[in-house]
């Protein structure tokens, strides 16, 4: 009898654990994306609201257990990273800043005012609880009104329909924009119909958000990361048109073609190194006189994906489909828009609002397997752009390529007209530069983009500089050419 009782107790414990894993609001091992209209205003409404229709991601950045409670913090872009696009951050997303999961499964989310929003995911049909309460005692009651079979990202799953009603502090019904609205909680995929928790229960948060993707396993339009964005393949070809237009004579237009020759990925999958054939034709307007720069070289591109904090964060990175290239979307290529146009709340705080009233506007768009897809920025007296206009990736060809003779002229100029020689390409200090066109200037640049030497001499000494890779820019009467050398000690 004791053995039977013990067996039953163990079975009940295991059953409870298994049940607790179903109908969870969140799963720390997954990232989610939701589609809907988002309010980008501050919670306190301190400036005019703005809206964005798109897909926004939610993911767990860190978790900690305090007593019997689990604290999960949603990912956000923090200051102080080495990622060039993470100086500004967004602390709170569509599910707020954190979730507290209690021992009985009750999950508490928090809006922008740090008010608690309660979910009791394991209660059955006809069960009710106070989801939210105002300071005056008025409250929103959540009730599980039904259990249904529902299509979640193409898979049928059991779903609880949690309907909302509003009451005053004496339990009398109140008119409210959330009356009869419903959360849909899936057995295996969390909230499949939700609302903007950060602004809940403001009117702007009453637009429903639909689950559009999930990771682990990847389903639907799941949030992409830097590893997805910079996942090039050997043979991939990309053409970018890059321009800078100031209110001066320092502008330029570059036509750049990159072909992936080789690929190496570190054992921990964090570092991706590519050998790239680079062709570049640049037309410069320097002091209002045109100058042309030609580059034909093999370069190395290195991406340390863990440094790309902003691109890795699931929260608040909108995957837009159709805004930039509908034909790409229909082929299933995911985009991630990275907002770079926010005020910062302080030295260690996250952003408070979009700048809107200021002129600087920079929203680079990254695409899965394509890298930077589109980056257009502007200010009062300048504008710049970097646009992917054509690519070949596997069997996929998209866009309009450069005119046939635009980049082939780079090869022709080097092979048939101007001969440039920089040797040795691996040196302990001394370099020689030769050309069959008059050399006007030679510049030596390090890989940090710093100009360390400028000279008109053909013999150059790199002594005193640290070992590493350097770019030699040879400016001649017939054009400008770049070579790469290695300095060893």
- Give the count of helical stretches: 5
Helix content: under 10%
pLDDT < 50 runs, ≥5 residues: 1-20, 40-52, 76-91, 316-331, 340-360
User: Which whole number gives the mean pLDDT?
Assistant: 75
Domain count, please report it: 3
Give the structural class: mainly beta
Q: Care to count the β-strands? A: 34
Shape: elongated
Question: Major beta sheet, specifics?
Answer: 14 strands, antiparallel
Q: How much strand content do the residues show?
A: over 45%
From the alpha carbons, calculate the radius of gyration and give it in angstroms: 28 Å
User: How far from one another are the termini?
Assistant: 80 Å
Quick take:
With 489 residues, the chain is mainly beta. 9% of the residues lie in helices and 48% in strands.
Structure report:
The protein has 5 helices and 34 strands. The protein is mainly beta and 489 residues long. It has 3 domains: 2-220, no CATH class; 226-405, no CATH class; 418-487, Sandwich (Immunoglobulin-like). The longest helix is centred in the N-terminal third of the chain and has 19 residues, at 2-20. The protein is elongated. The chain starts with a helix and ends with a strand.
